[in-house]
Amino acid sequence: TGGKTASKVFDFGKTVVVKPKGKHQATVVWLHGLGDNGSSWSQLLETIPLPNIKWVCPTAPTRPVTLFGGFPSTAWFDVEELSEDAPYDLEGLDAAATHVANLLSTEPADIKVGIGGFSMGAATALYSGACFSVGKYANGNPFTANLSAVVGLSGWLPCAKRWGKELEGVDGAADRAAALPILLCHGKADDVVSHKYGEKSSHALSSLGFKDVTFKSYSGLGHYTIPQEMDEVCAWLSSKLGLDTSSSSLK
Questions:
Q1: For the purposes of burial, counting CB atoms within 10 Å of the CB of 248, is it exposed (0-12), middle (13-18) or buried (19 or more)?
Q2: Is there a catalytic annotation at residue 24?
Q3: What is the dihedral angle through the alpha carbons of 245, 127, 104, 225, rounded to the nearest 10 degrees?
Q4: Which Pfam families would you find in this protein's record (predicted)?
Q5: What confidence tens digit (pLDDT) does each residue in 50-102 have?
Q6: Residue 99: active-site member
Q7: Which residue out of 32, 99, 195, 223 is catalytically annotated?
Q8: One of 190, 194, 195, 201 is an active-site residue; which one?
């Protein structure tokens, strides 16, 4: 944009909400991958046994994507390649993370909130987790949501190298990072976002002072999700969000 200060306006798509089937204890925003939409994930999340979670599944803006030669697609931010070494579209990442925080801003104070996602959605979720720890976005605006959990499936941490400096300079950032539980899951046969990027992101988070990082690998798993992985997500979220898993939690 060569020195223009006006920020782009991003037009986010439709948000699908999966209401809790039991007592509402937590709200998780779930972010789809490149070219997908919120409703496809809402159908899967509708079926998993976490009755106390409200799932919010937004749809990314449709925009020209460099990876696709400028062809428009739903994307949380622009990418040249799906890896943690690619140049970053910080403006797009900030807009996506702000959209997520806004979706969580109306939740009651006693409801725990989290962010999860798949592929590029996982990258956006991890970026949001880093912004939460620093207390602000790359553009300097305050990050307002109080996150209790972050889940990334088949993803990576964007701009891993910039966070160290950011975290050092902010009071309370190290404590927020240390206390934020993060679950990363990745297939060893992923030919879209390489398993090594997930693994490197896990190491990067740990070295930045995120003390509660779990990394799970799945042999033979490509760039998709399987029931075993979603079972892992369910058990982890129940534990980290302190959900009531007894059968009486259903109405």
A1: exposed
A2: no
A3: -40
A4: Abhydrolase_2
A5: 999 999 999 999 999 999 999 999 999 999 887 777 788 999 999 999 999 99
A6: no
A7: 223
A8: 190
